[in-house]
Amino acid sequence: MHSRQFQNVFLTKILSDIDRRHEKHGYDPLLPLHQLERAKYMKLTSLRLTLFEFVSIVENACFMATTCLQLFAICFLDYGLFWLLETMSFHGHQETGLEVPAYVDLEIKGGGFVADVMRGIANAFRPLTQKSILDVNPCIPLPVKPDYAEYLIILLLCLLAWLILLAEPYILRTRHLIMAYFYPKRAKERGMFLYNMISEDRTSIFKFVRRRKRNEFNHTRNVKHTRKFTWLNNRFSSLIYMCSCCSCCQSTERCTICGRSLTLSNRNPCDTPGCKGVYCGKCFEKSHNKCCLCNRPVDYGDFSDVTEVDDSSDYSEKESFSERQYRKTCGGQR
User: Fold this and answer.
1) CA distance between the termini of the chain
2) Number of alpha carbons in the 13 Å side-chain half-sphere of residue 325
3) CB of 142 closer than 8 Å to CB of 93
């Protein structure tokens, strides 16, 4: 209600109505989205997560993992203590009673105060029982069997918490539907804001990806990699090659800019020898049927990326300003 940008990346029915209304007035249709835009914008029923939802799930998952680990440790210690006492009780009941060791009895005869004191001291060292075998079973601990139903309840609660955690982003998406039902005016404002944002980003996203692909191509062509990176690259290339050999299906050729799968009907390769650029029909048309890897930005219509300069080695072949003035004045070259 207070921010038009908050989680405003979902395609709703209001956005579809706005797009149809603009299309009737001669504007280009916004839907369906292009290949590059589908990674950022999605439907409310999409299983993919936005960056905000992914970060929220990671934070809640860390908290839940800590809580579940703590509960597991408590249950494990509880059962471990029961198992230890149960083992002691089992082996204790298997043994026979303890025999009373032999002892020397001291008998005091006579009367008097000294005799009574000596008799009391002698009685203190005399065993309390006269049995030859002692039963130690009453001294063995008898553990109480744990309630396994409580363990099951704790497990079900943890599973329910994890289920709520995973379903939380999808359930919170219903806020858009609730807002559209109770506050339709605000929902239309957010839909119009999303329409304008997608329209503005449509050109900028395409240019950004095209420039990034061009920079990657120039970087890998002109920059010499270090030994460590080359070693890692060789290892990963070998691993990818092994995985591709083990795979049942072969990888299809994809567009250099948008990554869309190409077929023979919409495949547009670059005519320059040695260039690896291959494009789909839409990307090739937006680039004025020019390859963005081997041509200048001006050639394929990117006038905002004219940052290239001529090589300094070409300056010797060009005529300087002073030479041109001398030629015009004196009619020759020096």
Assistant:
1) 75
2) 3
3) no
* Domain spans of the chain, in order of start: 58-159
In angstroms, the CA 269 to CA 289 distance is 10
Q: Quote the CA–CA distance of 284 and 210 in Å, as a whole number.
A: 11
Beta bridge mates, 269: 278
Residues 243-266 pLDDT 10s:
545 544 445 778 887 777 778 778
* Residues shown for the chain: 334
* Closest-CA residue to 188 (of 18, 23, 45): 18
Choice between 80 and 5, residue whose per-residue pLDDT is larger: 80
Strand pairing partners for 254? 261
pTM comes to 0.53
Q: 98-99 and 42-43: which strand pairing?
A: unpaired
Q: What pLDDT, on a 0 to 100 scale, did the predictor assign at position 244?
A: 47
Where would I find the H helices in the chain?
13-24, 51-94, 113-124, 148-172, 174-182, 184-222, 227-246, 281-286, 321-330
Query: Is residue 193 a contact partner of residue 4, using CB atoms and an 8 Å limit?
Result: yes
3-state secondary structure 237-253: HHHHHHHHHHCCCCCCC
User: How far apart are the C-alpha atoms of 214 and 62, rounded to whole Å?
Assistant: 39
Closest by Cα among 35, 38, 36 to 11: 38
Residue 6 to residue 280: CA distance in whole angstroms: 34
Average pLDDT score over residue span 43-65: 90
**Residue 285 backbone phi and psi in degrees, to 5:** -70, -40
CB atoms within 10 A of CB 293: 21
Per-residue DSSP letter, 126: S
User: What is the DSSP secondary structure assignment for residue 137, as one 8-state letter?
Assistant: G
Q: What is the DSSP letter of 136?
A: -
DSSP letter at 317? G
